[in-house]
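Quick log. Single chain, no ligands specified.
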Amino acid sequence: MNFSVIIPARYGSTRFPGKPLALINNKSMIQHVFERAQESGAKQIIVATDDQRIADACHSFGAQVCMTADDHESGTSRLAEVIAKENIDKKQIVVNVQGDEPFIPAENIIQVAKNLAENPHVPMGTLAQVITDVDDILNPNIVKVVTNAKNLAMYFSRAVIPFDRNAMLSNDLTELSLEDLPGEYLRHIGIYGYRAGFVSQYNKLASTQLESIESLEQLRVLWHGYNIHVDVAAKTPPHGVDTPEDLARLMAAS
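-> predicted structure:
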């Protein structure tokens, strides 16, 4: 299967400056992400960064780097710049693997690419996992997704979707249990695959009120009538790294 991986990596994280260069077992975080991408069998792996320090680190372990502007409003916009600069064919499948996912299973990367390859009329794909903790269902920081019979996203939200009317209105939410909710709830996992041509097309779409309200970029795709394929992840990935404390917890668990 022929697909590419692009890894956006910014130095200027507010909560964790220099995050891609943080060391994990004597390797930088960005090198770990790069190696997970290598394990996926991607035809091409490109690190997209706006910082020379990250570029130098990537060159030291043999990674291809594309220098990008430092004023992108979204990860998709940065992806579009890389696709244009590297002249990636518009039909090529591109998987966006975040630079703060050092422990992402290669299986997740392969799965997203494979789902797009097997669904040629879908321009974008992502993954989800079944939620097993009722607190996660109620947590607005956990993005939920509802899909249809063809595994296409119907909606993404920070709210509780689907909303079980009987359970939610008849129970004290502080005492709610999974047994009270007969339906299946899916947590969105933030890995995306695209057809390269759609990334440039996405950047031309007008922003929408829904994506602003929910602060979820992918809602722009649904609003304008495009499909997003969603599959339950074959292997559950750990959370990404937002803070030094996140990194310490992941290292302790690995």
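The longest strand covers residues 186-195.
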